[in-house]
Structures are given as C-alpha cells and as structure tokens.
Amino acid sequence: MLKPHGKSFDSDFRANFADLIAWRRDVRRFTAQAVDETLVQECLQLANMSPSVGLSQPWRFIELADPVRRQAIVNTFEKCNAEALADYHGDDKTNYAGLKLEGLREAPVQLAVFADTTTTKGKGVGRKTMPEMTAYSVVTAIHTFWLAARARGLGVGWVSILEPEAVAKACETPENLQLIAYLCVGWPQQEMLTPELETAGWETRTDLSAFYKKL
Ligand SMILES: Cc1cc2nc3c(=O)[nH]c(=O)nc-3n(C[C@H](O)[C@H](O)[C@H](O)COP(=O)(O)O)c2cc1C
User: Fold this and answer.
1) DSSP secondary structure string for all residues of 166-212
2) Could you tell me how far CA 180 lies from the centroid of its own chain?
3) Given the CA of residue 160, which atom of ligand 1 is nearest to it?
4) Which residues in 28-90 belong to E strands, given as ranges?
5) What is the pLDDT of residues 34-67, one digit of tens each?
6) What is the C-alpha R_g of the chain?
7) Which candidate among 104, 133, 147, 213 keeps its CA 20 to 30 Å from the CA of 110?
8) Which domains, and CATH codes, for the chain?
9) pTM of the complete model beyond 0.90
C-alpha cells in the first residue's frame, strides 16, 4: 500500500533491482555504435542525486571528446600498464599480459570524474576528521552512474591504471580536483553475469560470509 507521503517499491521492482546489480559489469569491450547524449545526461542527473558528505556534491565530471586529450589518456595507460606488468612474475605475468583492462580506444563516451577537495558546499560537515569522505562521496555518484547506465543497456568501465597528473593535464583541472575515476562508456559487445576477471581466471568472487560478522 502506498504511504501518504512516501513511495513504496514492490517485489517486482526488487527483483529487477537485484538483476540490475547482478548484471552490472565492468565493461572493456564496446561496439562502435554511438551513444545518444541524452542517455549520458540522464545517468549524470541520477548520479547527481547520490549521497554526499554534508550534501557537498563534490563530484566534477569532465567528458573528454577531443582526440588529442583522449590520446594522452591512452599514453598514460600504456605507461602505467607496462610498469604494472613488470611487477608480476611467472603465471601472473603471463595472465596479466592477456587481460583487457580498458576500452579507451573504443568507448564512444569517456568521463574523467574528480572530487573537489576544497568545495565549501556542505560547510565542512563530516569532513573535519575524515577528509577522505569527499572522495568517497564521488564514488557513490560513480556507482549510481554505473547502475543507471546499465539500466539503459550501456556498459561502463572504470580505468584506474593511469597517472592522475597526466589525466589532470589532459582535463586542464586545477590542483584541488582529485582524480577518482576515468570511465569508459558505450554499448557492450556482450552481456555477462560473471566478471571478466573471473572468466579470465585472474580472480574469483568470494561469498559474503567471508566478509561479514556480527559481534
Ligand atoms: C576503484 C575501481 C577501480 C577499477 N579499476 C579498473 C581498471 O583500471 N581496469 C579494469 O579493467 N577494471 C577496473 N575496475 C573494475 C574491476 O576490475 C571490476 O569491478 C571487478 O573485476 C569486478 O567485475 P564487475 O565490475 O564486472 O563485477 C575497477 C573497479 C573499481 C571499483
């Protein structure tokens, strides 16, 4: 029954929501199909409703369309990925070399997501003893964006194998903007229930019981 001043969600919605979470993937393989700008804006509007410390809304989204700027992101990924590969040995090295960890050349939409570490919005509530809450607030927005995109059939891939300074330079951002994520967005080649890293034999998902206890 609908509450007078509320909104209730029925069991169909809950089942669909569970499916949305289960079918969300980190996507690195995109088709060449363009993405309608309005879809991206819808996802950003929903992301902008995410929880944030003190209602500070510290997320700053920069969409990179310029090929020269995008190439700078590819360059920093190539450098960081080669350095990461050099740190692995044996089977891990072989396996790491075979992983696809970004869709930077294919994704039609690319967003650098920053946290404004000096925003006065929210008047500092909740950030005094734990300033990292600003960055965490941006992560909530990214997750909302991720789910909103998936609900529209879009795939999102989070790329973190980057030098933040190089991304900041490509985005011409000031020092108070901290890089949180670089997102590749587009139509996925495949829809999967299993994370790609699991399919590739790199890591497996662990049951909740290993991560939860009640004291
Ligand atoms: C903070 C963060 C950073 C990530 N960075 C990368 C990355 O650089 N490259 C990549 O391929 N995946 C990256 N991922 C995606 C994870 O690999 C992915 O979430 C995980 O393997 C589980 O797969 P799923 O998202 O499809 O469930 C990142 C995810 C998070 C949350």
Assistant:
1) HHHHHHT--TTEEEEEEEEEE-BS---SS-HHHHTTS-----GGGT-
2) 9
3) 8
4) 59-63
5) 999 999 999 999 999 999 999 999 999 999 999 9
6) 19
7) 133
8) 26-189 (3.40.109.10)
9) yes
